[in-house]
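Supplementary Methods S3. Complex input for the flavin-adenine dinucleotide-bound model.
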Amino acid sequence: MRIADILSDGKIHLSCEVFPPKKFDGLDEVKRVTTAIAALRPAFISVTYGAAGTTPGLTLEVAEAVRAAQVTPLCHITCVQSSREQVTRVLRSMHEAGLQNVLALRGDLPKDGAPCGDFPHAEDLVRFIHTQGDFCVGGACYPEGHPECPSRALDMEHLRRKVDAGLSFLTTQMFFDNGLLYNFFFRMERAGIHVPVCAGIMPICDARQVARVVKLSGSIMPPRFAAIADRFADKPEAMTQAGIAFATEQIVDLVANGVNHIHLYTMNKPWIAEAIFRNLSGIIGMNT
Ligand code: FAD
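Predicted complex, serialized as C-alpha coordinates:
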Protein backbone atom coordinates (compact mmCIF):
# COMPACT_ATOMS: atom_id res chain seq x y z
CA MET A 1 0.00 0.00 0.00
CA ARG A 2 1.16 3.55 -0.69
CA ILE A 3 2.19 5.45 2.46
CA ALA A 4 0.29 8.54 1.20
CA ASP A 5 -2.94 6.47 1.18
CA ILE A 6 -2.24 5.08 4.66
CA LEU A 7 -1.71 8.58 6.05
CA SER A 8 -4.89 9.94 4.51
CA ASP A 9 -7.29 7.45 6.14
CA GLY A 10 -8.06 9.78 9.09
CA LYS A 11 -6.64 7.36 11.70
CA ILE A 12 -3.84 7.66 14.26
CA HIS A 13 -0.67 6.03 12.91
CA LEU A 14 2.37 4.72 14.71
CA SER A 15 5.17 3.66 12.37
CA CYS A 16 8.65 2.31 13.17
CA GLU A 17 12.16 2.33 11.73
CA VAL A 18 14.75 -0.43 11.46
CA PHE A 19 18.27 -0.35 10.08
CA PRO A 20 20.01 -3.11 8.11
CA PRO A 21 23.11 -4.80 9.54
CA LYS A 22 26.64 -3.52 8.94
CA LYS A 23 27.59 -6.87 7.41
CA PHE A 24 25.70 -9.57 5.55
CA ASP A 25 26.11 -12.05 8.43
CA GLY A 26 23.99 -9.84 10.70
CA LEU A 27 21.00 -10.14 8.38
CA ASP A 28 19.21 -12.98 10.21
CA GLU A 29 19.29 -11.06 13.50
CA VAL A 30 17.90 -7.90 11.87
CA LYS A 31 15.15 -9.94 10.20
CA ARG A 32 14.26 -11.39 13.62
CA VAL A 33 14.09 -7.89 15.11
CA THR A 34 12.02 -6.67 12.16
CA THR A 35 9.52 -9.50 12.54
CA ALA A 36 9.15 -8.72 16.26
CA ILE A 37 8.49 -5.03 15.54
CA ALA A 38 6.10 -5.93 12.70
CA ALA A 39 4.08 -8.06 15.15
CA LEU A 40 3.05 -4.79 16.84
CA ARG A 41 1.18 -3.89 13.62
CA PRO A 42 2.74 -0.46 12.95
CA ALA A 43 1.28 1.57 10.07
CA PHE A 44 4.53 0.96 8.17
CA ILE A 45 8.20 0.17 8.83
CA SER A 46 10.93 2.25 7.24
CA VAL A 47 14.31 0.68 6.48
CA THR A 48 17.34 2.97 6.45
CA TYR A 49 20.00 3.10 3.72
CA GLY A 50 23.69 3.17 4.47
CA ALA A 51 23.09 5.10 7.72
CA ALA A 52 25.79 4.76 10.39
CA GLY A 53 27.84 2.48 8.16
CA THR A 54 25.13 -0.09 7.43
CA THR A 55 25.24 -1.94 4.13
CA PRO A 56 23.09 -0.15 1.50
CA GLY A 57 22.45 -3.35 -0.47
CA LEU A 58 20.64 -4.95 2.47
CA THR A 59 17.86 -2.33 2.66
CA LEU A 60 15.73 -4.22 0.16
CA GLU A 61 16.35 -7.57 1.89
CA VAL A 62 15.08 -6.13 5.17
CA ALA A 63 12.16 -4.44 3.37
CA GLU A 64 11.18 -7.87 2.03
CA ALA A 65 11.14 -9.17 5.61
CA VAL A 66 8.82 -6.30 6.57
CA ARG A 67 6.47 -7.20 3.77
CA ALA A 68 6.62 -10.92 4.58
CA ALA A 69 5.37 -9.94 8.05
CA GLN A 70 2.35 -8.24 6.40
CA VAL A 71 3.44 -4.66 7.12
CA THR A 72 4.00 -1.94 4.48
CA PRO A 73 7.74 -1.26 3.98
CA LEU A 74 9.30 2.13 3.21
CA CYS A 75 12.78 1.93 1.64
CA HIS A 76 15.23 4.79 2.22
CA ILE A 77 17.63 5.78 -0.59
CA THR A 78 20.39 8.38 -0.21
CA CYS A 79 22.22 10.65 -2.67
CA VAL A 80 25.49 10.04 -0.83
CA GLN A 81 27.48 7.24 -2.47
CA SER A 82 24.76 6.81 -5.12
CA SER A 83 25.32 7.30 -8.82
CA ARG A 84 22.45 7.64 -11.28
CA GLU A 85 23.11 4.03 -12.38
CA GLN A 86 23.02 2.69 -8.81
CA VAL A 87 19.74 4.45 -8.02
CA THR A 88 18.28 3.17 -11.28
CA ARG A 89 19.28 -0.39 -10.30
CA VAL A 90 17.79 -0.07 -6.78
CA LEU A 91 14.53 1.34 -8.15
CA ARG A 92 14.30 -1.39 -10.77
CA SER A 93 14.76 -4.05 -8.07
CA MET A 94 12.12 -2.31 -5.97
CA HIS A 95 9.71 -2.20 -8.88
CA GLU A 96 10.27 -5.91 -9.62
CA ALA A 97 9.67 -6.74 -5.97
CA GLY A 98 6.50 -4.60 -5.87
CA LEU A 99 8.00 -2.16 -3.35
CA GLN A 100 6.52 1.26 -4.11
CA ASN A 101 7.41 3.52 -1.13
CA VAL A 102 10.70 5.45 -1.04
CA LEU A 103 12.14 7.96 1.44
CA ALA A 104 14.50 10.11 -0.66
CA LEU A 105 17.39 11.53 1.38
CA ARG A 106 20.67 13.23 0.78
CA GLY A 107 22.43 11.19 3.48
CA ASP A 108 25.09 12.39 5.87
CA LEU A 109 28.08 13.83 4.04
CA PRO A 110 31.33 11.86 4.42
CA LYS A 111 33.89 13.29 6.87
CA ASP A 112 36.16 14.45 4.00
CA GLY A 113 33.28 16.68 2.85
CA ALA A 114 33.19 15.13 -0.64
CA PRO A 115 30.08 16.28 -2.56
CA CYS A 116 27.27 13.93 -3.51
CA GLY A 117 28.03 13.33 -7.20
CA ASP A 118 24.96 12.91 -9.36
CA PHE A 119 22.44 14.17 -6.79
CA PRO A 120 23.66 17.19 -4.76
CA HIS A 121 20.42 17.49 -2.78
CA ALA A 122 17.50 15.22 -1.94
CA GLU A 123 15.36 17.41 -4.22
CA ASP A 124 17.41 16.17 -7.23
CA LEU A 125 16.91 12.56 -6.17
CA VAL A 126 13.14 13.08 -5.78
CA ARG A 127 12.89 14.39 -9.36
CA PHE A 128 14.95 11.46 -10.68
CA ILE A 129 12.89 8.82 -8.83
CA HIS A 130 9.73 10.12 -10.49
CA THR A 131 11.32 9.60 -13.93
CA GLN A 132 11.85 5.92 -13.06
CA GLY A 133 8.34 4.76 -12.24
CA ASP A 134 5.24 5.19 -10.16
CA PHE A 135 6.73 5.48 -6.65
CA CYS A 136 5.23 7.10 -3.56
CA VAL A 137 8.06 9.37 -2.41
CA GLY A 138 8.61 10.92 1.02
CA GLY A 139 11.39 13.09 2.41
CA ALA A 140 12.98 14.33 5.63
CA CYS A 141 12.33 17.62 7.42
CA TYR A 142 13.80 19.37 10.43
CA PRO A 143 11.61 21.18 12.99
CA GLU A 144 14.73 22.90 14.38
CA GLY A 145 16.15 23.58 10.90
CA HIS A 146 18.79 21.40 9.21
CA PRO A 147 22.11 21.87 11.07
CA GLU A 148 24.01 22.80 7.86
CA CYS A 149 21.57 25.50 6.78
CA PRO A 150 22.38 29.05 7.89
CA SER A 151 18.75 29.95 8.64
CA ARG A 152 15.45 28.20 9.33
CA ALA A 153 13.75 30.44 6.74
CA LEU A 154 16.15 29.27 4.02
CA ASP A 155 15.79 25.65 5.12
CA MET A 156 11.99 26.02 4.82
CA GLU A 157 12.42 27.41 1.30
CA HIS A 158 14.57 24.37 0.41
CA LEU A 159 11.89 22.12 1.92
CA ARG A 160 9.17 23.78 -0.17
CA ARG A 161 11.25 23.15 -3.31
CA LYS A 162 11.80 19.52 -2.30
CA VAL A 163 8.08 18.97 -1.69
CA ASP A 164 7.22 20.66 -5.01
CA ALA A 165 9.65 18.25 -6.72
CA GLY A 166 7.19 15.46 -5.82
CA LEU A 167 6.96 14.49 -2.14
CA SER A 168 3.74 12.95 -0.82
CA PHE A 169 4.74 12.99 2.86
CA LEU A 170 7.49 14.02 5.25
CA THR A 171 9.12 12.50 8.32
CA THR A 172 10.75 14.77 10.85
CA GLN A 173 14.12 14.52 12.44
CA MET A 174 13.81 13.54 16.11
CA PHE A 175 12.91 16.35 18.50
CA PHE A 176 12.33 16.39 22.25
CA ASP A 177 10.20 19.49 22.72
CA ASN A 178 6.79 19.39 21.04
CA GLY A 179 6.65 23.19 20.92
CA LEU A 180 9.30 22.99 18.18
CA LEU A 181 7.00 20.86 16.03
CA TYR A 182 3.97 23.09 16.56
CA ASN A 183 6.06 26.12 15.51
CA PHE A 184 7.36 24.15 12.50
CA PHE A 185 3.77 23.39 11.42
CA PHE A 186 2.97 27.11 11.65
CA ARG A 187 5.97 27.96 9.44
CA MET A 188 5.12 25.15 6.99
CA GLU A 189 1.59 26.49 6.66
CA ARG A 190 2.94 29.98 5.96
CA ALA A 191 5.31 28.51 3.32
CA GLY A 192 2.36 26.78 1.61
CA ILE A 193 3.51 23.20 2.35
CA HIS A 194 0.56 20.88 2.84
CA VAL A 195 1.75 17.26 2.85
CA PRO A 196 1.22 14.91 5.83
CA VAL A 197 4.06 14.91 8.37
CA CYS A 198 5.14 11.97 10.54
CA ALA A 199 6.57 13.26 13.82
CA GLY A 200 9.87 11.46 14.55
CA ILE A 201 10.15 10.36 18.18
CA MET A 202 13.32 8.78 19.56
CA PRO A 203 12.95 7.04 22.92
CA ILE A 204 16.32 7.59 24.60
CA CYS A 205 16.91 4.67 26.92
CA ASP A 206 20.67 4.96 27.34
CA ALA A 207 22.16 8.19 28.68
CA ARG A 208 25.21 7.72 26.43
CA GLN A 209 22.91 8.33 23.44
CA VAL A 210 22.21 11.91 24.50
CA ALA A 211 25.48 13.47 23.34
CA ARG A 212 25.44 11.41 20.10
CA VAL A 213 21.87 12.43 19.28
CA VAL A 214 22.51 16.12 19.96
CA LYS A 215 25.63 16.01 17.74
CA LEU A 216 23.95 14.11 14.88
CA SER A 217 20.64 15.93 14.78
CA GLY A 218 21.48 19.30 16.30
CA SER A 219 18.41 18.75 18.53
CA ILE A 220 17.87 20.81 21.63
CA MET A 221 17.63 18.58 24.70
CA PRO A 222 15.06 20.07 27.10
CA PRO A 223 16.31 20.56 30.68
CA ARG A 224 13.60 18.14 31.84
CA PHE A 225 15.22 15.34 29.81
CA ALA A 226 18.77 16.38 30.74
CA ALA A 227 17.76 15.93 34.40
CA ILE A 228 16.50 12.41 33.64
CA ALA A 229 19.76 11.51 31.89
CA ASP A 230 21.83 12.92 34.77
CA ARG A 231 19.83 11.11 37.45
CA PHE A 232 19.60 7.68 35.79
CA ALA A 233 22.79 7.56 33.65
CA ASP A 234 24.29 4.65 35.59
CA LYS A 235 20.99 2.83 36.29
CA PRO A 236 20.13 1.13 32.98
CA GLU A 237 16.74 -0.21 34.06
CA ALA A 238 15.62 3.16 35.45
CA MET A 239 16.95 4.97 32.36
CA THR A 240 15.05 2.64 30.02
CA GLN A 241 11.84 3.16 31.99
CA ALA A 242 12.31 6.95 32.08
CA GLY A 243 13.16 7.13 28.35
CA ILE A 244 10.03 5.15 27.45
CA ALA A 245 7.88 7.28 29.78
CA PHE A 246 9.28 10.52 28.28
CA ALA A 247 8.62 9.36 24.69
CA THR A 248 5.13 8.13 25.64
CA GLU A 249 4.27 11.47 27.22
CA GLN A 250 5.56 13.31 24.14
CA ILE A 251 3.33 11.17 21.89
CA VAL A 252 0.26 11.60 24.11
CA ASP A 253 0.69 15.39 23.91
CA LEU A 254 1.15 15.24 20.11
CA VAL A 255 -1.97 13.15 19.53
CA ALA A 256 -3.97 15.32 21.95
CA ASN A 257 -2.99 18.29 19.79
CA GLY A 258 -4.07 16.66 16.54
CA VAL A 259 -0.78 15.15 15.33
CA ASN A 260 -1.93 11.78 14.01
CA HIS A 261 1.27 10.39 12.50
CA ILE A 262 4.08 9.31 14.81
CA HIS A 263 7.28 7.66 13.58
CA LEU A 264 9.25 5.80 16.24
CA TYR A 265 13.01 5.59 15.88
CA THR A 266 13.06 2.13 17.43
CA MET A 267 16.80 1.52 16.84
CA ASN A 268 16.27 -2.23 16.27
CA LYS A 269 15.03 -2.64 19.86
CA PRO A 270 11.67 -4.39 19.77
CA TRP A 271 11.24 -4.30 23.57
CA ILE A 272 11.25 -0.47 23.50
CA ALA A 273 8.70 -0.40 20.68
CA GLU A 274 6.58 -2.99 22.53
CA ALA A 275 6.55 -0.90 25.72
CA ILE A 276 5.47 2.22 23.85
CA PHE A 277 2.76 0.43 21.87
CA ARG A 278 1.50 -1.06 25.16
CA ASN A 279 1.46 2.37 26.85
CA LEU A 280 -0.52 3.77 23.93
CA SER A 281 -2.89 0.85 23.38
CA GLY A 282 -5.97 2.88 24.31
CA ILE A 283 -4.96 5.71 21.98
CA ILE A 284 -4.21 3.36 19.07
CA GLY A 285 -7.48 1.60 19.97
CA MET A 286 -9.36 4.82 19.13
CA ASN A 287 -8.91 3.80 15.48
CA THR A 288 -11.30 0.87 15.80
P1 FAD B 1 18.39 17.79 1.77
O1 FAD B 1 16.93 17.97 1.68
O2 FAD B 1 19.16 17.70 0.50
O3 FAD B 1 18.97 18.99 2.66
C1 FAD B 1 20.33 18.98 3.09
C2 FAD B 1 20.82 20.41 3.28
O4 FAD B 1 20.91 21.07 2.00
C3 FAD B 1 19.89 21.27 4.14
O5 FAD B 1 20.68 22.15 4.88
C4 FAD B 1 19.06 22.03 3.10
O6 FAD B 1 18.59 23.29 3.62
C5 FAD B 1 20.06 22.22 1.98
N1 FAD B 1 19.42 22.24 0.66
C6 FAD B 1 18.41 21.46 0.22
N2 FAD B 1 18.10 21.74 -1.05
C7 FAD B 1 18.96 22.71 -1.44
C8 FAD B 1 19.17 23.40 -2.66
N3 FAD B 1 18.42 23.15 -3.75
N4 FAD B 1 20.17 24.33 -2.72
C9 FAD B 1 20.96 24.60 -1.64
N5 FAD B 1 20.80 23.96 -0.44
C10 FAD B 1 19.81 23.02 -0.37
N6 FAD B 1 20.80 9.26 6.44
C11 FAD B 1 21.28 8.14 5.84
O7 FAD B 1 22.46 8.10 5.49
N7 FAD B 1 20.45 7.06 5.62
C12 FAD B 1 19.16 7.05 5.97
O8 FAD B 1 18.45 6.05 5.77
C13 FAD B 1 18.62 8.21 6.62
N8 FAD B 1 17.33 8.28 7.00
C14 FAD B 1 16.82 9.44 7.53
C15 FAD B 1 15.45 9.51 7.83
C16 FAD B 1 14.92 10.69 8.37
C17 FAD B 1 13.45 10.75 8.68
C18 FAD B 1 15.77 11.80 8.63
C19 FAD B 1 15.21 13.06 9.24
C20 FAD B 1 17.13 11.73 8.33
C21 FAD B 1 17.67 10.56 7.76
N9 FAD B 1 19.01 10.46 7.42
C22 FAD B 1 19.50 9.33 6.83
C23 FAD B 1 19.92 11.59 7.68
C24 FAD B 1 19.88 12.62 6.50
O9 FAD B 1 20.37 12.02 5.36
C25 FAD B 1 20.72 13.82 6.92
O10 FAD B 1 20.03 14.54 7.91
C26 FAD B 1 21.20 14.74 5.81
O11 FAD B 1 22.14 15.64 6.40
C27 FAD B 1 20.13 15.58 5.12
O12 FAD B 1 19.29 14.83 4.35
P2 FAD B 1 18.03 15.50 3.58
O13 FAD B 1 17.43 14.44 2.76
O14 FAD B 1 17.20 16.23 4.53
O15 FAD B 1 18.82 16.53 2.63
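The domain at 3-280 is CATH 3.20.20.220 (TIM Barrel). The pocket of flavin-adenine dinucleotide is lined by residues 48-51, 76, 78, 105-108, 121-123, 139-140, 146, 148-149, 155, 158, 161-162, 171, 173, 200 (CB under 6 Å).
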